[in-house]
Structures are given as C-alpha cells and as structure tokens.
Design goal:
The complex is a heterodimer of chains A (293) and B (386). By secondary structure, chain A is an all-alpha fold. Chain A has a single domain (3-284), classed as ABC transporter involved in vitamin B12 uptake, BtuC. Helices cover 74% and strands 2% of the residues of chain A. Chain A has a two-stranded antiparallel ribbon with strand order 1-2. In chain A, helix 2 runs parallel beside helix 4. With 386 residues, chain B is an alpha/beta fold. Chain B has twelve helices and 15 strands. Chain B is globular. The chains are: A mainly alpha (293), B alpha/beta (386). Chain A binds chain B through residues 1-2, 5, 8-9, 12-13, 15-16, 122-126, 128, 136, 138, 140, 142-146, 148-149, 218-220, 222-225, 228, 259-261, 263-264, 267-268, 270-271, and chain B through 35-36, 38-39, 168, 194-197, 199-202, 204-209, 211-212, 214, 224-225, 228-229, 232-233, 236-239, 241-243, 255, 257-260.
C-alpha cells in the first residue's frame, strides 16, 4: 500500500472510530451505570440528526442562524427529552429483567420511527455543512479530505476529554463512578440515586443526539439510520467493558481500524471481521477490556 | 384476414363471457405500504389504477376489484402474505413487489398455486432466470439491464479502466456484473470490484481505495439513502473532478433533492427518464399529476401502469375470461406494451425487452441524453422456457 494512501486510511479509521465513540459513550454510561439495555439509543442518534435537519430553518429564523446554534439547540432538546423519558419510562425498568428492558426499548424504537414518519416524512434529506467548514484539504494527487470530517473528529476529541474530566475530576463524576460500582452503597450514603440516574440518562441521550447532529451533514438523514448504528455501538460497549468510557474509546478505535482496513484488504470478509475480533477478545476477556466495578 | 378472424373470435368470446362468468377480475397488490419502500408501493398502485381508470374502470369488459397486503419488504413474511392473497382472497392476478427477496417468495407461491404474477419492480435476475415460469412476468427491469447499458455507454465515452462498487448483496452483484460484461466486451477492463456490507454507509475507506487505483470511471449500484451518501462523499473526497462517476439509474432517482450539487451532471442508465417528451409519456405524466398530485410521476408509477397494461393485453385476448390462464399468459408474453417509457415487448422469460436510456442529472431531473442500448433483452440465464 502506498504510504500516502495508508496514512489517509488511518485518518479514515480514526475519524470513524471517534464518531462511534461519541455514540457509544452514552450507551455505555446508561448500560453500565443504570443497568439498562437501551436498544433505543440508536433512535436518539436518529433524533439528533433529524433535529439538525428540521431545526436549522427555525434556528436561522429566530436566533439568527448558525450551525453551532443548531447543534446546541439539538443538545439541549435531547437532554430534556432524555430527562423526560427517564421519568416516564426508563425509571420503571431498573428492577425488571433484561428481556423486559429489551421489549420496552424496542417498542420505543418503533414509536420513534413512526413519529419520525409522521412529523418529517420517509424521504432522505441532505443537511448542508456550514460554509466555514465546507472546504477541502488536498491529500493526494486525486483525493481531497473534507474539512468538515476533521471538524467531527475535533468535536469528538473535545467531548472525550470533557467526559474524562467530568468522570475523574468532578463530584458528579465521582457519584457516577460510585453508582456504577455499587448502587446500594451510594444510595445509603445519602445520594439521590434517582436524580443521578436521570442526569446520566439525559447526558447519554444528549451525547447520542450530538453525534447524530454533527454526523448529519456527512451521513444525510434517512429512515432507519438509528438501527444501522446501534448494533456496532453495542459491539463497542461489549468489547470496551460495560460502563467504561476508556474502554469504549479504545474499542471504538479498534473497530475503526479493523473495519477500515478490513474493507480494503479483505473485502469478502469485511462484514464479519469486527465480530470475529469481538469474539476473540471476549474469549480472553469475557467482561471486555476495561470492566468497571 | 387473420385479424378479422381473431376479431370475430374475440367478439364471440366476449358475448359468452358476459353471459356466463362473473364479470370481475380480482387483482391482489402485494406491495410495501410501510417502511423505506412505502412510497414506491404507493406509486406502483397509483400507476396501475391510473391505467384501469383510463379504460373506464374496466379491463376487457371486466370490473376490477383490488385486494391489498402490506409485504413490509420482509422476505420472511413473504410466503404467508402471498397466501393471504392467493388462498384467502382468491385473487386472479398478483401484482408485487419492490423488494427482490420478497418477490422470490411471491414467485414461488404464485407458481405453486398457478396464479399469474406481474412483478412491478424487483430486479433480481433469478425471477426471470432459474425461477422463471410461464405464469411470472415483469413490467420493470432485471438488475443486469441498467448495468449492461451503462457499461456500453461508459466504453463509448472512451473509458478504459473501471472500478465497480456496491453493497455486498445480490442486486449489487448482478448490476455490477452487467456493467463488467458490457465494458469488457468493448475492450475496457474492470480493475477491481469493491463491496461493503449492506446497508453500511461508511464509504470513506473505499473512496480512498478508489483514489489509490485511479480508474477512468467508477460504476456504482446504490439506491435510497446509500445513493445520497455515496454521491455526497464522492464529491467531498474530490474524486468527481478526475474520475467520472456513473451508475444504475437508482443512484439518482427520487434522491436528487437530497443529493443537491453533488449529483449534478452524473450519467446513469435506466429504462425511463424525465423528459422523454413523447406524446405517450406527456399524456401519462399529465394524467398522473392530475390524479395523484402528491407524488411525482416516476419510474415506479410507470412500472405499475405497465403492469396493468400487460394484464389488459392478456385479458383482451381471452375476452376477459381469467379462467383461460394459458391463453391469457401466451397473449401477455406476445404483447407489445405501449409504455410511457416507449414500446416494449417481453422475452420468453417474461422480462421486458426495452430501450435503455442514458440520462444526465440536470437540476432535479434525470434528463435524457440518448438511447444507450436499444431493445436490450436480459440473457435470462437458467430459464428453461424456450
């Protein structure tokens, strides 16, 4: 492989891995800390993307526009949605079996897809990248790299650093980590676990929506886009170790590289390589790379 | 003389038909009315009903009654859904469907129960190949046809090296194989076929691979959301400046609004285009717009419309008596359909032998450039009907 092409492929791998991390980090938080298998997480990604599409004209009308304002609006609305959903639905699931959790969250997928169909429609829509990010950077003699993809990576890195800081350096992070390792203990220490869970859930939904919103200009928005990403996100969570942000980061990167180079070097096996890797890792580390608690 | 005789026979048959058999034809639509393909199902049904309506609500003097089943584009429910129409509703004619996997199940059920089936979209080669049967017809295309036509057109443009790319599933394989066959017959070379798992849309690694291979032209088979994302990523990667992107028509059908600037100028091949500007097509489009203002007259509507025309041709030959299955089918097979897309006939295997158009994207239309291949017939490999 030509060295320039090799480097571009590495860039592709990192960029894909970072985006996966952004979606999966929320999932691993919810899964690890609240113990809920949230199949509807992909729907939050979808909701974020559709909000970026639908809110853009509204934001430019009332707030003077701007891509960042749109994304910010998506995050705020998604967090509110998460807060509401936790109160209305998820809070009833903590003491239920996994099967019941799967049933309810799967039901939510159907509800969200139907709402999407009613409120927006069933068409594919493009979302344009902001003008200041729509340029490209020449990489080889025929290929250019869109600036916007680099922007996505930058956002993901910033979010990763912020989350690391939040979890390891703040009081909220300490409570979340404590909650992940021993739920009863933290409750008996006088911390309102219900409120904590509600915040974690809102955070997870906001992260997924953020990922959807910033991915929208490169992925376009289309029906079923959430279902396409949820499976690979569960792979990230399982490989990384349930509840571990660090694990999710490393797993997402691993998947980014395996998937990217697998498609190029072993095109016939590209579909299964990631899952083979997952099976191999689970064989030696049944609880994932960085099991919490 | 011969014509006069058939005319008389027809009149007699009609006279008898009107007296004895119930003057009704039951048509069963098995189409996607929900999910990603819902709009396609609606367009097909609209097209079919438009033709029947133009004939005064009757085909060959028979009232047409409709039955509908939503196939959900779900192959595992295919046999059950098909039997709902065949056994419960006892339809005379089946019309369906969009998804190739479901169409396979439908074709099997139709053949087992000896029901006439007209496929208004699904392009799987097997349907008019190994699975072909005297009761199965198609009003659309085989996946091979647009691929082959584009291969001819790409070679004519002087391209020598090509890369093909699609999802790793049957339709993509059949389409890119068609391209390869024509392109290499004309002296070109397909240097590599790239595939990614369905329905993945992270194209960046494969685009980088294309940049490394530097072919003259890239042929692609994507549809819907995948088509939008692929053209956008292709343009964003700057590849469109040096390496021409071409595709099967689905790359730019019903997706142009979302694709925006990235699709402008793309060449694709299909059996329909937006400005054929024939009297037949203009009338069809005008009538369709009048009756169904919400949906544009597109290739799917045409396919539904022509399914009704094929049925009409068959029914006319037997004076509306659907119990004369063999004669009706023989008539469909030998019919010349005056389609909005242009006249077409059917091959022995039941697939349209039709002009394939080269189209170019201008604004939100796929504008006709020229006929890429006239009267192209699917090779129907594996079909035993001779």
């Amino acid at each position: 492989m030509d060295p320039v092409i090799f480097l571009i492929q590495c860039l592709n791998a990192i960029q894909y891995g970072l985006l996966l991390f952004l979606v999966a980090s929320g999932l691993t938080l919810i899964f690890g800390i609240m113990g809920i298998i949230n199949l509807a997480h992909g729907s939050f990604y979808m909701i974020g993307a559709y909000m970026a599409f639908a809110l853009e004209p509204l934001v430019s009308q009332y707030l003077g526009g701007g891509f960042l304002a749109t994304v910010l609006a998506c995050i705020v609305l998604a967090a509110l949605l998460g807060y509401f959903l936790e109160w209305a639905f998820y809070s009833y699931l903590y003491h239920r079996e996994h099967l019941q959790q799967v049933l309810m969250t799967y039901g939510l997928i159907l509800v969200f897809e139907e709402l999407r169909s009613i409120i927006i429609d069933n068409d594919v829509h493009g979302v344009s990248a902001p003008a200041w990010l729509s340029g490209t950077i020449p990489l080889s003699d025929v290929m250019t790299y869109p600036t916007y993809r680099l922007f996505i990576s930058a956002v993901c890195i910033v979010v990763a650093v912020l989350m690391y800081w939040l979890l390891s350096r703040t009081r909220l992070g300490m409570m979340i980590r404590a909650g992940a390792s021993n739920r009863e203990m933290i409750n008996s220490l006088g911390i309102d676990i219900n409120r904590l869970f509600r915040i974690v859930f809102a955070l997870g939904v906001a992260l997924a929506a953020l990922a959807g919103a910033i991915a929208a200009p490169v992925s376009s928005v289309y029906p079923g886009m959430g279902n396409a990403i949820i499976i690979i996100c569960f792979v990230v969570v399982v490989i990384g170790g349930i509840g571990s942000i660090k694990g999710a980061f490393i797993a997402a990167m691993l998947i980014g590289f395996v998937d990217t180079f697998g498609q190029v070097l072993f095109p016939q096996a590209a579909g299964v390589l990631v899952y083979v890797m997952m099976a191999a890792i689970l064989l030696f580390k049944p609880e994932g790379l960085f099991k919490q608690g | 003389m011969k014509k006069a005789l058939t005319g008389t026979a027809l009149a007699i048959a009609m006279a008898f038909g009107a007296g004895s058999a119930a003057a009704e034809v039951k048509v069963g639509f098995m189409l996607p009315y929900s999910g990603t393909y819902a709009q396609l199902g609606e367009a097909i049904e609209n097209g079919f009903k438009l033709y029947v309506q133009e004939q005064g609500g009757k085909l060959a003097g028979q009232e047409v009654t409709y039955f509908r089943v939503d196939d959900e584009s779900n192959p595992s429910k295919g046999p059950d859904n098909a039997n709902r129409l065949i056994k419960r509703d006892q339809v005379d004619i089946l019309v369906g469907t969009v998804h190739s996997g479901v169409a396979m199940a439908l074709a099997k059920a139709a053949t087992e129960s000896d029901t006439t089936l007209i496929i208004p979209n699904a392009g799987a080669g097997a349907l008019t190949g190994p699975l072909c049967s005297k009761n199965v017809f198609r009003s659309s295309f085989s996946n091979w046809q647009p691929g082959y036509a584009m291969g001819v057109a790409a070679a004519e443009k002087g391209h020598k090296n090509a890369v093909t790319i699609s999802w790793n599933y049957a339709a993509g394989k059949e389409s890119t194989d068609g391209f390869k066959e024509a392109f290499e017959k004309a002296g070109g070379k397909v240097v590599k076929h790239l595939a990614l798992p369905f329905p993945q849309v992270e194209f960046q690694p494969l685009l980088t691979e294309i940049a490394a291979l530097k072919p003259d032209v890239v042929y692609t088979f994507f549809a819907g959301g995948g088509a939008v994302k692929f053209t956008q990523d292709y343009a964003a990667a700057g590849l469109n400046k040096d390496i021409e992107l071409v595709g099967a028509g689905f790359l730019t059908d019903g997706t142009l609004k979302a694709q925006g600037e990235s699709a402008q100028g793309l060449l694709t091949a299909l059996h329909y285009a937006d400005n054929l500007n024939t009297e037949r097509d203009n009338t069809f489009r005008e009538n369709y717009r009048k009756n169904f203002p919400k949906l544009p007259p597109d290739v799917y509507a045409v396919q539904g419309y022509d399914a009704a025309q094929m049925l009409d041709a068959g029914l006319k030959a037997v004076g509306g008596d659907v119990s004369k299955k063999d004669a009706m089918r023989e008539a469909i097979r030998n019919a010349t359909i005056d389609s909005p897309r242009g006249k077409f006939t059917l091959s022995k295997s039941g697939n349209p032998v039709q002009d394939m158009y080269l189209r170019q994207v201008k604004g939100e239309d796929n504008v006709l450039v020229k006929i890429a291949v006239p009267a192209l017939a699917d090779p129907s490999v594996g079909c035993k009907i001779q």
